[in-house]
Each structure stands twice: as structure tokens, then as C-alpha cells.
Amino acid sequence: MNKSPTGAQSVLRAIRLLKAFTLDKRERDIRGLAEETGLRRGTVHRLVAALVSEGLLTKAADKGKYRLGPTAAVLGVRALRSSALRESAHPELVKLARQTGETATLEVLTEGKMLILDEVLGDRLVSASPSLGTAWELHATSTGKALLATFSKSRFEASIAEALPRFTDKTLTGRDEWVCELETITERGFAIAWEELEAGYAAVGAVVRTPMEDARAALSVGGPSDRLDRDTLVEIGALVKASAEAVSARLGFEGDHPVATRDPSL
Question: If pLDDT is split at 50, 70 and 90, which confidence band does 148 have?
């Protein structure tokens, strides 16, 4: 068995700690990390302090616990940008930006939010500002709303179980509002967010699908709401949906491109 170089020991131990943070275990304490990795608590404490200083970990709201930090997210974005998803979607983003003159984005579901993984800016003088690497709430974005429409009843209920933050007076926060909205998204095949995240901004999004996996990505086109009224967004929505289907096909998704898999009794 090959042994790792002595100088790499701390690095390997730090990597083991980072790998201990999963979707099921997003927040960890020193004791739990030590038990899982087999490292001494003192060693874990020193490594965690170093990882926090570099932004790879951050202190959680729950005292004594830690979670992955912003630097880890940035590194994740860089890794994802070189993935098959980005490579398959980028040509469609270029096409959408040219067709509409607005900014087109590829967004992925990460930590319960929509993270902008790739974007192509439109050629309009006034357009959406660059926002690569930022993450926004599902319920207030066109891409997030499109993904919510694919959730099962139980998963959707869990997503809105807590009070949803209201960003503008148009943000959908009530269950009854959402029942109606999901029906519209299902019928159209795309979702519209008109000044729901920020006053003056509007967007339309459609999901990207991959074989044997739940939808976790979506394409979007967005810009100033005074230029993108609801009728215009419906027209652009058809283009976004077509591009999302093209990306899905490149990723190996076959057959129909259903929008919703949730329980219709929702």
C-alpha cells in the first residue's frame, strides 16, 4: 500500500473533514467530525480553525457547529462550470441572449437555493447585471419556481413549510397562491417571476432534465420588467423551454419533457 507523503498529511486530513459535510449532515460539531474521521479532537479543532480562516468552513447559527463556507461554494462553482451540464447549456445561453437581447443564465439547485452557474449577458444597454456565483431563493425566481413545479407533494410541502420571505409585494408566499401558480407553470412548461425577487426585474425559466435524476437545473432569461412585460415573457418562455429541452436531449434525456411530477391533489 502506497503511503502519502508526510507533507500532505494535513491536507488529506482537511479533505476528509470537508467530505464529512453532506446534504444529510450539513452542520457538524468537533466531536462528530472526530468520530467520523477517526482524528483526535485537538487535530480536528486545529484543522477546522484553518478551514474557517480560508472560508472553506464557517460557523453555523447553532453554537459549536460548522458548515461549508463561501469559498467552498466558489470552488464548487468553478468545478461545475467545467461539467457536462455547463458545456451542454452554454451554446443555448448564447442563442437565447442573441434571440432576446437579454441576459440568459444556467442555474442549479444548491443548498435549497438557485445558484447561477453560467450566464451570457444580453446586448441591451440596460440589462441584468453580472451575477455569476450568486444564489437566490427558489420561490422568488423563475428557475426556482419551475423546479418547484416538478417536486412531489411531500417535497413541495416541505419547501414551503416555513414562512417564505417576501422580497416585494408580488412575491408569492401563500399556499393558495402557489396552488394556482403551479397549475399555470405546468400548463405552460415554464415559470415567470415578474418583480417577485426585486422590483423592476422580471425573468422566465424552464427546467433542464437528465436521465434517471430529479430536475436540479434550469435555464432563464431576465431583464428590466418595464421591457419584459408579461406578454413578452410568455413569448420568450417558449424559447427558453425549447432551449431547456435541447440541453436535456444533449445530456441524454429521452422522451417527453414533463414539467410537473407532483401530486395533482396539492
Answer: very high
Three-class secondary structure assignment of 51-95? HHHCCCEEECCCCCEEEECHHHHHHHHHHHHCCHHHHHHHHHHHH
Q: Among 3.40.630.30, 3.30.450.40, 2.60.40.1120, 3.10.20.70, what is the CATH number of 74-250? A: 3.30.450.40
CA torsion 93-98-103-108 (nearest 10°) is -10
Q: Which CATH class is domain 6-68?
A: mainly alpha
Is pLDDT above 90 for 112?
A: no
**Does 75 or 4 have the greater pLDDT score?**
75
Sort 217 into a burial class: Cβ within 10 Å, 0-12 / 13-18 / 19+: buried
Q: Write the pLDDT tens digit of every residue in 227-238.
A: 999 999 999 999
Alpha-helical (H) ranges within 103-229 are 142-148, 153-159, 175-188
* Domain locations in the chain as residue ranges: 6-68, 74-250
Q: Is the dihedral of CA 90, 91, 96, 98 positive or negative?
A: positive
CA dist., res. 238 & res. 245, Å (int): 11
